[in-house]
Amino acid sequence: MMHVSRSSSSSSLPPSINTNLPGTSGTAPNNAQALVQEITSLVKDDDRIKVAGIDLDGILRGKIMAKSKFLSILESGFGFCSVIFGWDMHDKTYAEELSISNAANGYKDIIAIPDLTTYRRIPWENNIPFFLLSFYDPNTKEPLAVCPRGVLKKVTDDLSSLGWEAMCGAEFEFFNFKETPDTLAAKGHTAPEALTPGMFGYSLLRPSLHQDYFYDIYDKCKEFQINIESLHTETGPGVYEAALSYTTATQMADMASLFKLSVKQLGLKHGIMPTFMAKPYSDQPGCSGHLHFSIRDISTKANLFAASGSTATATPSNEQQLHSPTSDDDLIPNQSALESAAPDAYSTSSMSSALQHALANPRPVWEKVEGVDKMSQIMKWFTAGLLTGLPSIMAILAPNINSYKRLVENYWAPVTISWGIESRVSAIRVIGPPQCDPKGTRLEMRVGGADINAHLAIGACLAVGLYGIKNKLAMPVGPTTVEMEQAEEGQSHKPMRIKAERLPKSLKESALAMLAKDSIARQVLGDAFVDHYGATRLNEYRLWETAVTTWETKRYFELV
Q1: How far is Cα 121 from Cα 222, in angstroms, rounded to an integer?
Q2: Which of 31, 80, 85, 130 has its CA 20 to 30 A from that of 41?
Q3: Is there a domain that residue 270 lies in?
Q4: Do 82 and 176 share a domain, yes or no?
Q5: Is 127 found in the same domain as 236?
Q6: For residue 9, is pLDDT > 70?
Q7: At 345, is the pLDDT very low, low, confident or very high (cuts 50, 70, 90)?
Q8: pLDDT at 482
């Protein structure tokens, strides 16, 4: 579960580094030069640097560089083989070669530029300096269409042009096993030994069994500038859950990607293998990757998801204590920016008539549900965009074959296009007063598993949410209603059925929904990204479709 931090979540970079800079690309010349000088000073006593970029599966691909080489490419970047976007997570090139990286173009180089604002040191690798990379098209010098950090940057730039900033939190569940890559391979990747037995959520006892590992996750991640708000056991054998501290969308995506890598590396040092696979056990709940969202006004720090009338105020020492709009007019800040971005959709007269229409017409019955009045109009539009666009971004929120094994009824995972006030059985959970202060008003996207690519998932959710705001979408459905069915013989509890449209049930179904000519994903993420990413998901499905599984051999080998 996510708990919004009451302390600042700003990065612990050296004070002189301006964390508001977007990186070397697009930075004002004077600021960029100052940042280069600062980084040069910070690594003066080092002889090597580690850098890594993120592929479409959320895997970090990188290398160690000599300091002299690193300093020579700070502003211009360096060539990086494009094959990282032309193969899958097991380094097998896609059956259908894609335009960015293929044999015909020789798997040509793309340009990798280190984002200097991501500077940190890896405490379990002798404090080697580390930087994240962003990838660029060598011909246009624009962000590569399929670079996950670039996809997120595009939507955060769109929000910034409106005077807004996305804030985000993330929480990941992961199972842990007494295994190493070698021991698991020797078992044929079957029957891994759980780190601890039984079902014991929020246990103070279980972490004592592997205390060094448990505390290393918290302490070493903090040193690596991954701010963990809480860490605890979840219900299931050897399963932990970590909530990362609320921060800007870009910083959260970076932290989330580095968190998963860090846990895996720390696990290796303790003879433990964690997994962020969405559904490791068929008879246990899966591993979630829930994301929390709100939008704030950059200048006033107002939480634009909080309803009118809140008196909460932000303080310089605590960025999480955001204040809320105080009138209906405040629900649409930066009106001139909106009109400039889309004159027809955002003219003052059309906004006025929309408000008049709302006053002249009765609200839907569900508008009177307790808690809905705590949602601002912007939050409702954003939620409507998420609900409307959800089927078209499912291939991002559930990117693997195994992702859909998690999305089944009665296992604490959403299976419908739904939302609700404080509803953990819905795809979207709206969180607001009285469960939190108005300044903490936010929504939780509960569809994604721990196997998400954080940059793509956060970027896609923000993009379809912004689509809802720009088009002033109405909620396609009201809050969740639940029907409890009669328990069958042998069942320990009554099955739960939500009255709402079903989410896509397979990776193929999700990929085809994204690839549709009129998909919302295509409208907000662009043809180049959708065509490439959708094809990679269909490739994953085809591999599964032709695979012979252990289930099949156990079931049919002898008897058919």
Answers
A1: 11
A2: 80
A3: yes
A4: no
A5: no
A6: no
A7: very low
A8: 64
**The pLDDT of residue 348:** 30
299: confidence class by pLDDT, cuts 50, 70, 90: very high
Supply the Cα-derived Rg of the chain in whole angstroms.
24
Please check the confidence at residue 399 and state whether its pLDDT lies above 50.
yes
Identify the weakest region by mean pLDDT among 30-39, 237-246, 287-296, 532-541.
30-39
Residue 3 scores a pLDDT above 80: no
**Residue 68: which CATH number?**
3.10.20.70
State the residue for tokens 């009129």: 518
Question: Is 161 within a domain?
Answer: no
- Give the span between the Cα atoms of 418 and 477, in whole angstroms: 7
Phi, psi of 504 (to 5 degrees): -50, 140
Three-class SS string for 257-310? HHHHHHHHHHHHHCCCEEECCCCCCCCCCCCEEEEEEEEEECCCCCECCECCCC
Domain termination residue (choose one: 243, 270, 290): 290
Cβ atoms 113, 35 nearer than 8 A: no
For the chain, the domain total comes to 2
Token pair 């920016």: residue: 337
Amino acid at 558: E
Give the pLDDT score at 116: 97
Looking at 290, 324, 354, the residue that finishes a domain is 290
**Residue span of the structural domain in which 274 resides:** 169-290
Query: Does residue 6 or residue 164 have the better pLDDT?
Result: 164
> Do 177 and 122 belong together in one domain?
no
The residue behind tokens 């991002």 is 396
pLDDT at 331 > cutoff 80 = no
Alpha-carbon distance values, 382 to 151, 309, 332, 419 (Å): 19, 20, 13, 12
What is the DSSP code (8-state) at residue 194? B
Contact 475, 384 (CB under 8 A): yes
SS3 state of residue 27: coil
pTM over 0.90: no
- Which amino acid belongs to residue 497? R
**Do 420 and 479 contact (CB within 8 A), yes or no?**
yes
Rounded CA separation 550/282 (Å): 14
